[in-house]
Structures are given as structure tokens and as C-alpha cells.
């Protein structure tokens, strides 16, 4: 049966993913099962999406309840779940206003548009360029791949959109040199996820904030992967003692359902007036009802504290592996966004772990990324570490 599904998928679906030869049929907590009955401990969680694990009963209940009340109406009207979610996000962040959409790429599109519109509304028509970081990842729409500082993401889609400049991450001098009279914003991930789980120096983001203030440009934090408790804080910017002007969220915001959000301070958000931007499915009642439950669980059930604690344990165990294997060059990350750099190809390790019942992820060719559900426990981590100790050279 699984072979039939894979063969059919390969015939009828766009060939945009290099899929592993398993068909996932069920999930519960940190575990997944395939169509052949094999069980896996999930250290990918939909790529930092299912922070509460799979089939969380409270999220399922919220979905079921809302499905029987109201699925969708146009954003021409108010709805209670959407309003309550926006109020909750602003209460728990720096922001005053929220724009809802369907994905991280759409959230970043909204941030790019808002930054440019903000400059235009101030009469600064020459300010439209955005500085982003090398090895960043902001999405695959034309604007967001143009903002992404990885040539492999942009390749084949040239000409990319004009107006983006790329500089090295963690280099404040390069940023100072890049900002000029045409710059309207700086866009960065507080921790680069797809770029290799690259963390900033302790004072870097503070220096970026000061420089943006000095130059009169906006600071945009892409927290699509780092947000919603993933780093041991609700938002990663909280670790660094700085606040952005705009922040984007998606991935874990609804634990697997499609939602994105752009949050902004009032003096910036006011550039979005009626008709300036829109999304048909942005913030529908059913999605926001589920997302609201996700935020409540994260913030009221001590999961973020657990993430910080268990993430520290996980990092220690990976560092122990590093002491045993010359193939490991570095261990880095925060909370449960962790990376292990190898001096060999990472894909064979991913496949060997999958054969032994563990799902992990490789990025940049040689970096193993670990983004399990925030509910992961020490025994699951110990089991993975024992597996890695066996398969690593």
C-alpha cells in the first residue's frame, strides 16, 4: 500500500520535494507512525512547527468546536477568535497591531510591504531598500526569495526583485557600511535556522538596534522559526534585550495549521490603511481558534520553561557526542533549536537514524538540525544520542 501511495504521489504531485520513502499516517505526542506500522521519535516536528507535538487533544478540541460554529467569513467583518488572538499576541510582545495571513513567506511579504509603505508615508520616497543577511532564509515567493541571502534559493528565478542588499550575519561594521539614504529597513532572523543554526554574538542585536535608531531605519525580526517558545522564550528577541519594529511569525503559531502573522508597533503599523494589504484566508475563525489554544498552552502550562531546561540538557548531550567523535565540528543553538556541524555529509546520518526510528534533519549539507516538539523528554533525547553515537564515524 505504501509503495502505491508513493508511486502515485511521484506521478501526480509537483516534484518540489526530495521525499524519504515512508508514508506517515499517524502522530501522537513526539511519535509518528508510517503505513507499515514503524514508529519514529520525531526530532523534526514539521520543521519547528508542531511545538506541542502531534494530535494535541486541546488543539483538536478547539478545532472541532469551532468547525461546528464558523469556519470562514471575509475579513470585511469582525470575528471573536481572530480578535482574541491578536489581543493575546500584542499583550505578550512588543507590538501594538497584528496582520494575519497564511504562511511565513506571506508574513515576510507583509513586513517588506509595510517597511516600504512606512517610508513613503513619511515622504522618504528614496528609501525602499532592505538589508538582509547572507545565509538567511525568508521564504520562496518572489519578494521573500529576493530577500533571502542564499544564492541556491534564488537560482533559476532571476531576475530577482530589486531592492535587497546582503551582508554577513553577525558583522556590525558590514551593516553600518550597507545602510545608506536608500535603506528603509534591516531584516534578519535572531538565530539563523535554515542558514545553519547560527547564533549572534551576545551584543550584536543590541548594536543592530542602536544602528537602526541612529540611521532612522526599521528593524524587522523574522521569528518564523525561532518564535513560539522554540528558543526557551516565547520570542527569541527576549534573550537579547532588544525589540524590533516589526516581527513575523508562522510555523508553530497554530501547531501545524496554516497561519502567519506580522506584528508591528503602532507608529509603523499605521502605514497599513484599508486597501493597502489583504489576505482572503488570513486569520479565519477556525485557524485563529486553534492558534489561540496553542498560545495559551505554551504560556500557561510551563512548556517554555521546559523547553529551556530540556534544551540545555540536549545541548550537553550533543556536546558529549562531540567529545567522542572527530566528525563533529560544532554544537550550537538555543532551547530546542539546535545544530550539530559535521565535517562529513549529513544525509547518510539522517537516513541511518530514520532506519533506527528517529527523524532528524540536515541543512546546508553537513549540519544536523534538531527541532523536536517542546514536550520532548530526556529519555527520548538519550535514545537519539545513543543512536547518533552508533552511526557517527
Label this structure with key terms.
393 residues, alpha/beta, four-stranded mixed β-sheet, Aspartate Aminotransferase, domain 2, seven-stranded mixed β-sheet, 15 strands, globular, single chain
* Fourth CATH level, the homologous superfamily of the domain at 69-300: Type I PLP-dependent aspartate aminotransferase-like (Major domain)
Task: Walk across the major sheet and give the strand order.
Answer: 4-10-9-8-7-5-6
Describe the sheet with the most strands.
Answer: 7 strands, mixed
Structural category is: alpha/beta
CATH architecture of the domain at 69-300: 3-Layer(aba) Sandwich
In whole angstroms, the N-to-C terminal distance is 35 Å
Gyration radius, to the nearest Å?
21 Å
CATH class of the domain at 69-300: Alpha Beta
CATH fold-level label of the domain at 69-300: Aspartate Aminotransferase, domain 2
Number of strands: 15
What is the overall shape? globular
**Average pLDDT over all residues:** 97
